[in-house]
Each structure stands twice: as structure tokens, then as C-alpha cells.
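Help! Submission page says 'invalid entity' but I think these are all valid:
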Amino acid sequence: MLSLDFLDDVRRMNKRQLYYQVLNFGMIVSSALMIWKGLMVITGSESPIVVVLSGSMEPAFHRGDLLFLTNRVEDPIRVGEIVVFRIEGREIPIVHRVLKIHEKQNGHIKFLTKGDNNAVDDRGLYKQGQHWLEKKDVVGRARGFYQENRSVEDRNYLFLILEL
Amino acid sequence: MAAAGAQGARSGGGGGSSGAGGGTSCGTGSSRSGLLDKWKIDDKPVKIDKWDGSAVKNSLDDSAKKVLLEKYKYVENFGLIDGRLTICTISCFFAIVALIWDYMHPFPESKPVLALCVISYFVMMGILTIYTSYKEKSIFLVAHRKDPTGMDPDDIWQLSSSLKRFDDKYTLKLTFISGRTKQQREAEFTKSIAKFFDHSGTLVMDAYEPEISKLHDSLATERKIK
């Protein structure tokens, strides 16, 4: 039998202690999972925290910034707000600003988006034949952001703005 | 100096205790497979990192448990530990249900089930905290002494211990609850862990076992006098 001294602690445990160690690990994972799901339920968005992947929203957001989203039904989408949306058939969400909105009496809206740093609106990004986005494509509206320090002068300086 | 003296005696005493330990495991080994026998190292002297507080406490607790269970032949009662295990298992179960439900019914439809699971999970966490703080306290062993006549209820022995962070004083408390009179008596000792471990971090049973026996006998003899 191999002499694996580092396993001595494990060998000394009886069944219950081993099971407790496994459970301990499971509880840590479960806690993280439950916090994430809890955030999903509270904000109403299927991805309450997203990372900005491109520079299309500079100078407001840079690559690597974290965005906090909510997707409540009561909050209407208005021009000038920053929304995170998913184009049908694509997995990666996009963070852009709302440019134009058409709204019907019953509350149904279609809207057009554009990145602050882009020259043209997003019609080129939408699906073939799609000219407007709808509420169902929205992952959430940006409510706050977290930006890591960018410059040498701003060392350890964090911005966190939460509008509730 | 006490540790060095114990180290000299350890080579003689260690052989004796490992012989006794080998005797007990040999008796049960015949009923288990050979692989399980090689896995268990009950008779190997306990060696831990002497600077790791939690490892020290665990090894002292386990050895105290071994003394009470093997020397005095008490039967361990797993009720307290099983309670904690069930609470943890139920919490993990809620988490798994939430995970699977959300996977099968994508987000907006699964909101009520998710909310239920999340709230239940945190409620279970609260229950677990209350359970460990008030019911379990720091008790790590509940042992029963079966009454030889079989008439009276069992006497209960409880062991609890504490070792503060970065401190070397280990407190072991033994509580005796008489089955007949339901009276509770306790005895404890607080000693530096340096008295029980040698330089390399091996637990010296010869120094530790007499302490446990002393605690035990002080509670047992009182009963006879009464």
C-alpha cells in the first residue's frame, strides 16, 4: 500500500466525518448558487451582473467594467437609457444605449439602439430582416456600474453608483 | 522538558499502545475486506502540523473520543451529529432542486420556484446556525453507558472542548448525566497543548490519556459516594 501521509487526516475520519466534509463543500457551492439565483429573482433579470466586453460604449463604460442590471416589468424603457440585450440566435449580450422608441397604447414597444462609441446604429448587428428590438430581447437595464482603477493617479479608487 | 521526557517514554509506550490498538483492529478486521483494513490507520500515532490550530483541536478531540469509547467501552450516540447532517443535506437538496428546475424551465417561468428555493435555503442556514450554537454548542461526543442490569436508562457522557485561535490553552469538559436521577455533573481541565504534543507534532497518548481518565474517574467516583 502506498504511504500517502497527506491522506492521513482523511483516513482517520469515519463515514460521518467524511460525509460532513463533502456536505461542507456542497454548502459552499450551494451558497454561491443561491445568492446568484436570489439576485436573479430580486432583479428580475436572467443575468443580473454582466461584464462589458467591447469598447463600444466609451467613454462611459470600458472593457472589463461590471454592470448591475434590473429587468422589472413596471419600469418602462425610455430613450437615453442603457440596456443590455441579446440578439436572437446569438449568445453574447450587448450593452448599448436606446436611440428611438415606438410605443403602442397597450405598452408594446420597439426600440433601436446604438453604441456611444459607434458611428452607426445597431441595425447592422440585428438579425437579417430585423429592424427593431423588443422587450423580450432585453436582459436588463443598467442600474449601476463598477469600474476598476484606470489610471495611475486613480489607484485604489472605486466607483460604485447604485440608483435604486 | 516534559515533552522531551515523554518522547523518551514514547518509544516504549508507543509500542505498547500500538500493540493494544492493533489488537482491537485485528478483532474487527476479520469481518472487513483487506483493503479497508489498510485504509484505516486507527493505530498509527497521530501526527499533525503543530501550528495548525484546528488540526490540533481535531486530533485532541478525536483522541479523547477514542479513550472514552475504547477504554471504557461506551457506545457513541450519533443523534446530535445526525441532526446537523440532515439540516445540511436538506439545504443542499433545495439548492439542487433550484438548479435543475431553472435548467429545465428557463428563467422567467421558474421565478416562483426559484424564490421558494432561495428563501428555504436561507431559512435552513438560519436553522443550522441556531442548531450549532444552542443545541450542539461545542459537544463533539455523546456516549452512552448501557446499564448492565438493563433496567435503568443509560448514563450519558458528553465531551466538549474549546481552543481559542492562536492560543495554546485547550479546555476539555466532560459532562455526566445520570440516567436514573437526571442529575448533571461536569469536570473540565485547561492545559497547554504543548503538554500533549512533541516537537514533530505527534500526539503523545501517554501524556493525554491519564488526563482523560482522571476527569472520568472524578465524575464516576462521586457517583459511588452518593
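Support: the input was valid. A stray whitespace character was the problem, and the output above is from the cleaned input. Residues 1-43 of chain A form one domain.
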